[in-house]
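can u do me a favor
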């Protein structure tokens, strides 16, 4: 599959990883829009939030619960912004579900 985030999961292209477990991977965005800009993805290829199935509810809960933990580990004590861009009109460029975490002093 020609998916850049699946290639990062497979180790075929490099990324600045900040977290990895059985289910999720988190890494620095290659074009940061804030002093700290992380992406968190499920390792399994889910194209977008619009493709989520009823069986994905627990995975989505674990993904959201991971966000504040990663924010804390990356020094975002002052708060952070999260975003999930979905579909063409939602500004999604990479068709593998990911949540942006943006923060840090400007
Ligand atoms: P989105 O518009 O929500 O699909 O965002 C995709 C994000 O992935 C953008 O912020 C890109 O800068 C980022 N991105 C694309 N390729 C890579 C890569 N190889 N490593 C890290 N981040 C990437
Ligand atoms: Zn993928």
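np, heres the sequence
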């Amino acid at each position: 599959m020609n998916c850049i985030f699946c290639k990062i999961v497979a180790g075929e292209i490099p990324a600045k990883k900040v977290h990895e477990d059985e289910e999720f991977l988190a890494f620095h965005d290659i074009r940061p829009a804030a002093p700290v800009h992380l992406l968190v993805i499920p390792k399994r290829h889910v194209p977008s939030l619009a493709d989520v199935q009823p069986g994905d509810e627990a995975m989505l809960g674990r993904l959201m619960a991971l966000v504040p933990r990663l924010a804390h580990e990356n020094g975002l004590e002052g708060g952070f912004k999260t975003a999930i861009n979905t579909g063409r009109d939602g500004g999604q460029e990479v068709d593998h579900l990911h949540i942006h975490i943006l923060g840090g002093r400007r």
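The longest strand covers residues 36-42. hope that helps!!
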